[in-house]
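Input sequence (326 aa), recorded before submission:
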Amino acid sequence: MTSSTRPRLTFGIYPGSLLGDVELAGPPDRPDLINQALDQLQGPAGRPFLVHAYDIYADPGDAVHTTPRRSPADYERYLGRGRALDLVAQYHSRSGDIAGYCAFIERLIDRHGARLASLQVGEEPNVTGDANLDGAYPRVAEALIAGVHAAKEKARRSGHPGLRVGCNSTPLLGPATGFFAGLTRAGGERLIAELDYIGLDFFPDVFRPIAPDRLEPVVQGLLEGHRRDDLVPAGLGHLPLVITEHGWPTGPGRPAGRQAEVVAAVIDVVARSAEAVNITGYIHHALRDARSAGPGLFCQFGLMTDDYAAKPAFGVYRELINELSA
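Predicted structure, token format:
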């Protein structure tokens, strides 16, 4: 399949620097430089391009919860030139306050209105061992189901029927393959009917090394298996799949040139698989490093350094957007 006949994809990026852990924080975000970089990635004004951001619901007065509630801060400032918001509404209620979470989702829709293109209800609810992720909090499956209902009802009442509502997971292996089937058993036909897409956060060759000559077949197998083994048995096989987080960090033993190669290889597989696997979008995570001087795995995921100098992968991503964008 040539690039001219490939299905078109909607691209985007998380424009912040913080990756959940406040201890990784480096220099503060520079909104002027962020907007310049987003302009370069988007290309022509009005081309579909998503600003991926996170907004967290936690119990009122939760002094233990130190993660910033909005990331990046004031993310609305990055919606110029026709860019739209792809927002993750995270659930971090230690008390299991589902009604509060649903009201929070309704407020997000009121606040952002037509600028909100897609709303992901929950963030990696299948992951239970990390307080930065929603699976660590009580009643998360109930919250996700109720949150999807609340989002769809609010969008209809508010005159935003085009708002796309979804949920996501990481790759589901072994016993975890039943995560979505369990969710749809609990949520029933109403949940299946109200979901517009399923997101996938995946980071091949980051947490488990993959030989360079095996990267593309592994990625293709993961995408095909996710639909076949996870979504189809759950009654969700008809829904589009969006890559909601992907990246590969630089750092010790991780050269910038290899980051560019991984970004190019993964997006190429996504584009080649888009029709067969029904993939409609790709979000890169993230625009800039959290802390470029840090040696840790989560310090240097950016396409740019923490002073906004472009790495080779930035140019690669820009060219792929230009070639493959919807």
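Checked by second reader. The chain has one domain: 10-324.
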